[in-house]
Specification:
CATH superfamily: Transferase(Phosphotransferase) domain 1
CATH class: Mainly Alpha
Number of strands: 0
Distance between the termini: 25 Å
Helix content: 40-55%
Largest sheet: none
Oligomer: single chain
Order of helices and strands: HHHH
CATH topology: Transferase(Phosphotransferase), domain 1
Shape: globular
Structural class: mainly alpha
Length: 92
């Protein structure tokens, strides 16, 4: 498994929930929004896992977020709305 997309509780081998999946999905949306790989500034996967699980590290929000090729927050919001359009009231 690659820790770039794993939630902190999964890395720590704790119980998981829908929130764990939402975290991972959020990282994927971040990738789509920025067209960057999360934690690309950290080469070692073990360092990424430690930073996420123990130090609260998260992918950074670029300063030029509205000008990124992935469409920024407007593009991400539109994509999210399209993806959740088929969900019922429980979010499933």
């Amino acid at each position: 498994m690659n820790p770039k997309w794993l939630s902190p509780e999964i890395i720590r081998n704790e119980s998981h929930s829908r929130a764990s999946d939402v975290y991972s999905f959020g990282v994927v949306l971040w990738e789509l929004m920025t067209l960057r790989e999360p934690f690309e500034e950290i080469a070692n996967p073990i360092q990424i896992a430690f930073a996420v699980a123990n130090n609260g590290a998260r992918p950074f929000v670029p300063e030029d977020v509205e000008n990124v090729p992935g469409g920024g927050f407007d593009g991400m919001f539109l994509m999210m709305m399209m993806m959740v359009g088929g969900c019922d009231d429980d979010g499933v």
